[in-house]
From TrEMBL, chain A:
It comes from the Bacteria. InterPro entries: DUF2783 (IPR021233). This is DUF2783 domain-containing protein. It comes from Shimia haliotis.
Automatic annotation (TrEMBL), chain B:
This is 3-(3-hydroxy-phenyl)propionate hydroxylase. Its cofactor is FAD. Pfam families: FAD_binding_3. PANTHER family: BINDING MONOOXYGENASE, PUTATIVE (JCVI)-RELATED, TRK SYSTEM POTASSIUM UPTAKE PROTEIN. It comes from Shimia haliotis. NCBIfam families: PRK08132.1 (NF006002). Signal peptide: none annotated. GO terms for molecular function: FAD binding; oxidoreductase activity, acting on paired donors, with incorporation or reduction of molecular oxygen, NAD(P)H as one donor, and incorporation of one atom of oxygen. Keywords: FAD, Flavoprotein. The keyword Flavoprotein applies. It comes from the Bacteria. SUPFAM superfamilies: FAD/NAD(P)-binding domain (SSF51905).
Amino acid sequence: MSDNLILTANIDGADDFYADLLAAHEGLSPEASAALNARLLLVLANHIGDRTVLAEAIAAAARKAK
Amino acid sequence: MSKIFETPLYPYTRHPDQDAATPARHKVIVIGAGPIGLAAAIDLANQGVEVLVLDDNDKVSFGSRAICFAKRQLEILDRIGSADPFVERGVEWDVGKVFFDEREVYKFDLLAEEGHRRPAFINLQQYHFENFLVDRVRELQSQGAPIEIRGQNKVEAIGQHDDHVTLEVETPEGSYTIEADWLIACDGANSPTRRMLGLDFVGRVFEDNFLIADVIMEADFPTERWFWFDPPFNKGQSALLHKQPDNVWRIDLQLGWDIDKEEEKKPENVIPRLKAMLGEDVKFDLEWVSIYTFQCRRMEKFRHGRTLFAGDAAHQVSPFGARGANSGMQDTDNLVWKLKLVMDGKAPESLLDSYSSERVYGADENITNSTRSTDFITPKSDMSRLLRDAVLDLAEDFEFARPLVNSGRLSVPCTYDGSSLNSADALAGPDISRPGSPCPDAPLPDGFLLDLLGDKLTLLTIDADGPESFEEDGIEVKRLALSVRDDPTLALQRRYLGSAASGVYLIRPDQHVAARRETFDEPLFRAAVRRATGKE
């Protein structure tokens, strides 16, 4: 299903990244946090650029959606 | 002062058809003297086809309605007459600004590409547009062309037969019956023709209302398209400001779904909204107010026997994108040459089915674009709004987010990819002139390319040999021989050859490419002519 999307561990210093992510949300209201996530998503999507990878990423994320 | 849209332009007069013992038979009847019906009739009259336009009214459209006309439509006007009066009267524009809350987040420039006769867009009130088309009708009449408009002639019933249609027409002096070999219904989004024939109009209605107002004011706003998301003067909604000729400004204000339309249209409710937008001190007059709902719908097919549907009667889109009247003009552009060949017995009736399939394809493209714009302008869920606002916020700082901002994807002509009339692409040429494409214009020493192409089937040779003319099964093809030596701006080379050394194009009467290859090959081009006219 995901021929192009990397779904194995790929972030060097995963804990540091996760801490950065939480820090960005610190002190924000739920609305402001949601807006930050939306902006982050769009920034990352543009960096990836490849529509095939993006479609696979949407599908991977949607697996848990009920 | 009496307005152009208050003056009867084609007042009712009694016609001998109304006293005929047996119903008079016309070649083509067009229902509706709007932009599309008039364009269809003019195109037919240019080809020498007798045509009668029936309209239930006797005036041009009330209020500005369609105001943005794109380059391709101006080119079509050139083909059926001249776009000069439209362009001279219209307002040219190419800059758009997008505001979010109080901030300007994004500015776009349509950057009209050099080397086209016509600008990317003009704004012109639909009543002026129709008025100029009526002028063209009068000009054709003075030259003896068989074209006629009958005002206050309302079609009340339609009978479909194998080889003609019968119409019951209501006039101020009673009703009469007439017949036509072919009927073109251009009677708008609420098409009575569609209803009388019991045909569906399927699609989506968006639960939102927009107030649309034409305001006359002396204002120093620039000639730009200004679009606001969530502005302070219309919180949580959107707004549009766009200039028209004669100091008339178009304003669209999103109102939401649960409103009382009649209440909202009252000047005492409209004026405070406009003052909030324009400023308390700005003096203006209200010329026209209306409320509309976004709808994206189309008929399953645009041909039903001898009846052909065009314009809003066949398909409807939401307005931010100028895809209504513009796409309707592309309908008749596509239809009229086919109908002429069928009427002359030079092509099978099935050629008209390609009108339906090509323009259904075009309508779907417009509906897709229009639906996406609408989903951006009026988000349907909290998350949709969150993502929309994220795009707008990012667009202010970062270039990458700007293409995602969708305040309307402006009309561009449809390329009929996959049409049964196309021959396989046999030239390693540019994408923009692949089979199915509308021919891109190019400046030449003797004028612009599109003017030279005109409205006949053409063999365009660029640095290639070919016959001056040839006939295939009754259809004549004339050559237009060009060379990149006479191409000072290299536009011809860039738009038609790319890296190829030469090119031969078969171009349809509606100036769409039917076939292309590097050199002339007689059997292959004969086959391409048959294919382009529905014979294989």
